[in-house]
Structures are given as C-alpha cells and as structure tokens.
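Could you show me some protein's one-letter sequence and the numbers that encode its backbone in two labelled lines?

___
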Amino acid sequence: MRPSGAKTIAQGTSSPFATTSTFSLPCITARIPYFAGIISLSRMEKRATNPAGDWASRALWLLMMLALIGLALYVLYTVRHVISLMFICGAIAYLLIPLVDWLSRWRPPFSTPLFWRGVVSLVVVLGFIGVVTLSTIAFITPFVQETRDFLNDLPRYEGRIRETLTDWQTRYQQWYAGLPPQAQQWVDQQHAALLKSMEGTSAALQKGIQQVLQQTGHWLALLVELFLIPVVVFYLLFDSHRLKRETLRLIPPRYLRLTLHTMQETNRVMRGYIIGQLILGVIAGIATWIGLQLMGVKYAATLALFAGIARAIPVIGPVVAAVPIVIMAGLLGGLMLAIKATIFMTALFLIEHKMIMPKIIGDRVDLHPVLVIVVLLVSGSFFGLMGMFFGVPVAVIVRNVVIEQRRRARRRPRIHRLMVLEAAETTGTGGT
C-alpha cells in the first residue's frame, strides 16, 4: 500500500520537466531529491512485494564478501614473508620515532627541517644497528657455551630421568597394589612406553641441534637479505609524514574519517603494545636470570633469554617460558628445586600481570583470553612467530575500529522514507 506522500507525487504534482527551462543544470540539480525519493520508494516497494528477491540479493552479496575475504586471506598467505618483514620494520620504527622527533627539535640554524630530520634518522638507525650488534655478540657467547654444555650433559640427564621414573615406580608400587589387576597392567604399560619413547631421544636432540649449528652459513645468508630492514626503517622515520599524506590522498572522501580514525587507533595500540612488550620482556629476562642464579639452576642465561623472548607472546608466553625452566630445575635438583622454580615463575607472572602490565600497557590490549588464544593460533598458522606477536594488537585495532563505527552509526539521525518523500514532494512542487 503506497503512502499518501507517494500519491501526492504521482497525482497531485506536475512533472518535473514541465517548465521551459527543463534541461538547465540548476533545474536538474534541484530535482535530484525528487528522483532520489522515487528511487527509494521503488526499492522499498520492490522489497515489500518481492521479499524473495531481496533475500537472494543479500545472499549474493554475502557470497561475494566471503569470496573477497577468501581471496584476501590467500594473498596475505602468499606474501606472508613480506608482511612479516614489514611488521618488523614497523615495530622498530615505532620504537625509534619518539627519539627521532625529540632530536629533530634541536635543529641547527643553518640546516632545513627536512635535511636535519634525515640526518637524525640516519644516525638513529646506525645507532640502533650498533646496539643490536653489540647485544647479539654479548648474548651469543654464553648462549653457545651453555648449548654445548647442555649437549654434553644430555646423556647424563637422560639416565637421571630413567632413574627417577624407576624410583617412582618402586615408591608407588604399594600405592597401586590395591588397584584392580587391569589398572595395574595399564600403569605398567604406560611406564614401559614412556621408557621406550626416551630411547634415542638424546641422540636425536643432539643431532638436531648440531644440524642447526652447522647451518650457520645459511642463517647468515638470510641475515644478509635482511639488510632491507634498516633501509625501510630509515624511510619510515624520515618520511613518515609524507607517506601518511600520500596514503590519505588515495582514500575516497567518504572513507577519509574512517581511515584517519584507523590510523590513530593503530598508532595508539601498536606503540603502547610494542614498547610495553619490550619492557616486559626485558624485565622477565633479567628477573628470570637473577632467580635462576640464586636457585643454582644451570644454563641461566639461555633460559632467561628464552623467557624474555617468549614473554612477548600474550597469555601463553609465560607458560611457554616456564616449562623448560621447571624441567631443567627438576633434572638438576630434583623435585624440590622444580617446585621452587614453579613458585618463582608463578610469582613472577602474577607480579607482571597485576602490577607491571597495567602500568605499561593498560587497557590497550583488552581481549578475552579465549579470543587471544584463537587469534594466536590463526595468526601463527599464517605468519609464524611474527603472527603470534602481532596478531593480538591487529585484532584489537579491528575490534576498536568496528566498535567506533557502530557508535557513530547509532548517533546518525535515521531518516524515515516518508521524510524523503516529503522532501521530494516539496522540491517537485516548488519547481513547477
């Protein structure tokens, strides 16, 4: 049933081309709301009279969106190495941009701002390369030495594990003596399977680590290919403002506000997340090294370095870091030292989670742990370790942008179709 406004347009008003100046540009421009009202009414009537067609168009639109998403995921998976490299460059740039901005203020009077920022960016990048090189040299020596010691002691640790399992079987022989015969048989089978699975474990582990160490030349060749990282970081530091302007010029005006909000949200989340995770990783590494030294656990430097790197992975990082530490403590000092290491890692995690993390990261990464784990699994399957590190902040950015767009959409006035028809009627009547 057509509204009264539609009847007025159809019968009570004259044609929009009734005047002599019908085809003049001002006349046609003035009738645009009229045609918009007619088109809107036609679409609404079509939906009302043919709901099946409307659902078909929606289903087609949904299939097209799913196809585009699948194509985008395929492209991202194909160029995942390039994306990971750009994420690394972006993370380094986020760390160094505040320093470059601060040093750029101290410009001498004889230089231009652009030239001075280029000099500052070059000096900062070279300084960063020097710091990374010295840190690598400082950490690689104890790491290699402790790795060799671990390989030499690995057969002894395997024998100790066998002795521990045998001792446990003897100790708990009386405990499961009262169990049914089938349960006792199952326990014995599991114990035998565990001992059998350990046969050749040390040899396989030694062979794997030695193969990795022997491929040092291959890894160095890959590092040589990464010379693009400082080049890209330099341009991000030096010309980030112009890069932002050039990007905004490619955006249609209707999406400009959304793009600006996305850029601001990306800058806020990424900068806080990267700097916060770096600080937490350094704190976790130093605290772990001190704690392991006090407890007398061997390979403290290697385990602390692993703990600091693993801490960069949200939610599961502390657990991944604690597992080898507890195992090594149990191998070296028995059950009591393993319990002490567990208590220490738990206390360190609680202190980080309750006291340090809220001060550094705050609510920038506020996702449910289950969602974080899902994001880690998906991003890790696509982009590996880099995906696990950057997947959570990217998910947070997408969530915040969607929430902001929905909030803005609710603030916009909703125009009823009768209002459109009234505007069309007024314009059409006034032009005759």
Q: What stands out?
A: The radius of gyration is 33 Å.
